[in-house]
Amino acid sequence: VELLYPEVGHVEMDPDALWKGFITVVKGAVQDAGVQMWQMEALGISTQRATFTTWDRRTGVPFHNFISWQDQRAADLVKSWNRSCTMKVIHGVMKLAYFLTRHKRSLAASLIVFSTQHVTFRLVWMLAHYKQ
């Protein structure tokens, strides 16, 4: 998959190119397996798990390129959340919960921070900045 860099920190993929690559890989895998498409009941592929696009539900046409998990456009939003009072309260409460219970999950929760790899922040950025 060819990565596109329209601006510094932005990492995208062309949806049409990704789809064509997907079809090529699936056809090759089916051919290599020595079966016909009609013999397939299910197919599972897991890749680009934190990459997303949005599309027009009526036409199926994407509104924008895929936004890669490597993309940094939501970095300021992520920083603001990680520095927020909400996160400080969550960390404090979970540290207290760990102190009282000694459950390692509470300790882990007290250390949670967001990153730009979380789809939600990039999606929020895209919804706020996308101009059709």
Summarize the structure.
With 132 residues, the protein is mainly alpha-helical. The protein has helices at residues 15-33, 75-82, 85-101, 104-109, 119-129, and strands at residues 12-13, 66-67.
Which features would summarize this protein structure in a list?
132 residues; mainly alpha; 46% helix; Glycerol kinase 5; kinase; FGGY_N; kinase activity; transferase
Could you characterize what this model shows?
Residues 3-88 form the Carbohydrate kinase FGGY N-terminal domain. GO terms for molecular function: kinase activity. The model has no long low-confidence stretch (mean pLDDT 91). The protein has a two-stranded antiparallel sheet. The chain contains five helices and two strands; from the N terminus they run βαβαααα. With 132 residues, the chain is mainly α.
**Cα Rg:** 20 Å
Strand arrangement within the widest β-sheet reads 1-2
The percentage of residues in β strands lies in under 5%
**Broad shape:** extended
Average pLDDT number: 91
Topology record:
Elements: E1 12-13, H1 15-33, E2 66-67, H2 75-82, H3 85-101, H4 104-109, H5 119-129
Antiparallel strand pairs: 1-2
